[in-house]
Design a protein that fits this description.
437 residues; alpha+beta; 23% strand
């Protein structure tokens, strides 16, 4: 584990010891995640001290570590290489530099924390729901079964454990068929991996390597029919037997295109049917803390449950800009302070994750004909025209804190593009004038 002062000027800046510092208020894990940076900025504006933590492989560019508001920074081994060394480093960090709250943002860090939760909670408050609630929320199979018992609409789902059964399940639900992992974060042999959905568009399409990988890692997938309606989500904060905040958004584009993270989303009034389904599901789970319930409308306009994420959403910056301070509620709940209900928020706010939107455009151009994928002409025109539409906040761009957005674009967009261009240049055939005798 490496601990250093905030890197505001250069990643090569000389590190300073934190030994003389007072205990920090919040340790934010997963410094590469957008929600971590949004929370860090929110806590800094509230006058709280923060430590941002990244895995050693992400420390060079992780946006939260680049922020001017980061009080201190730390690096730990990646949880993808095993929960043991990761949690050991967190315990060492907390023993040397106590904190009031530890906030994870990634499914993988949450699973690692759960493996030794009691050890960590003896040192710091962790704003996660109970283990019983998390067991249901992280399993799409159990979540959908509970929703069906509550009378909430769910997609038809066929559980598949063998690759040879995928095609038959797709034929049964109909094409296009969506293939989802039962758990978004899967582990095997001490290694971990976050996986998303795949699709089969027809009987002649071969089963992709991504589906093969899901079965190899997770062992089980759900095969569901594709739903054509718009994607809507409700973020809730539930604690002490009541709801303190609710926030609705629609997703215009995502990356990956089918069922990924939202790259362009907008705050909307909370529809009654979404409120009823979300509240009943979260209350039945007793899913305390911040969570997001995702739906998709079917042909009749009925909201159909997709999944529940028992953590802060990646697009939490949209809720914050609309007036719902989920990070503040999380800190107050974890530290035993009084909670204040959020009764209203501003609709019509838009948030655009530029790096993700660039990748969305590339995926749309590369995978023409897939569900949710517009034509190449429409995809490019929409991407460009959205710059001229009503103002949207660019995540994670901030005029007073530019380094995180620069680091993210350089690492996730410019770096891969430059690498691809160099490989293409090496592989291209030389022109006659370039051929030497």
């Amino acid at each position: 584990m490496t601990i250093s002062a905030p890197r505001r000027v250069s990643l090569r800046r000389t590190a300073r010891s934190l030994a003389a510092r007072a205990p920090v208020d919040v340790v934010l894990l997963d410094a590469e995640c957008r929600q971590t940076l949004a929370c860090l900025r929110t806590y800094a504006r509230a006058g709280l001290t923060t430590t941002a933590v990244a895995s050693t492989s992400m420390a060079r560019w992780a946006p939260a570590l680049q922020s001017r508001w980061c009080s201190s920074a730390a690096t730990v081994p990646s949880f993808e290489n095993g929960a043991g060394p990761y949690v050991d480093s967190l315990i060492e960090l907390l023993d040397e530099h106590p904190a009031r709250m530890l906030l994870p943002a990634h499914d993988g860090s949450i699973e690692a924390i759960r493996s030794r939760r009691q050890e960590l909670e003896a040192r710091v408050a962790i704003p996660l729901a109970s283990e019983a609630a998390l067991d249901v929320a992280v399993s799409k199979e159990r979540t959908l079964a509970l929703a069906a018992e509550l009378g909430i609409a769910v997609p038809r789902s066929i559980l598949v454990e063998r690759l040879s059964d995928v095609r038959a399940a797709a034929e049964e639900v109909g094409y296009p068929a969506v293939i989802k992992p039962v758990r978004s974060y899967v582990q095997k042999g001490g290694q971990g991996l976050r996986v998303t959905s795949d699709v089969l568009t027809g009987s002649n399409q071969p089963i992709g390597e991504y589906t093969r990988g899901m079965l190899h890692w997770g062992g089980r997938v759900l095969v569901q029919p594709w739903l054509p309606g718009r994607r809507e989500a409700v973020s809730l904060f539930y604690a002490r037997q009541r709801f303190w905040a609710e926030f609705a958004q629609i997703s215009h584009r995502e990356w990956p295109v089918l069922g990924g993270a939202s790259v362009l989303c907008e705050s909307v009034p909370l529809a009654p049917d979404l409120r009823d389904a979300s509240e009943r599901l979260v209350r039945s789970m007793d899913l305390e803390g911040c969570s997001m319930v995702e739906f998709r409308r079917d042909e009749r306009g009925r909201p159909v449950l997709m999944e529940v994420n028992p953590r802060m959403a990646g697009s939490v910056a949209l809720a914050i800009s609309a007036g719902v301070n989920f990070p503040g509620l999380t800190f107050a709940w974890a530290t035993g302070q009084q909670l204040e209900e959020v009764k209203r928020y501003r609709a019509g706010r838009r948030l655009r994750w530029l790096a993700g939107d660039i990748w969305n455009l590339k995926c749309a151009l590369d995978h023409q004909g897939n569900p949710d994928t517009p034509s190449a002409k429409v995809a490019l025109a929409t991407f460009l025209s959205d710059f001229a539409r009503r103002p949207a906040s660019f995540d994670p761009v901030a005029m007073r804190d530019p380094r995180p957005s620069i680091a993210e674009l350089r690492e996730t967009v410019l770096g891969p593009a430059w690498g691809r261009a160099r490989r293409a240049n090496r592989n291209r055939r030389p022109t006659p004038n370039e051929v030497r005798p």
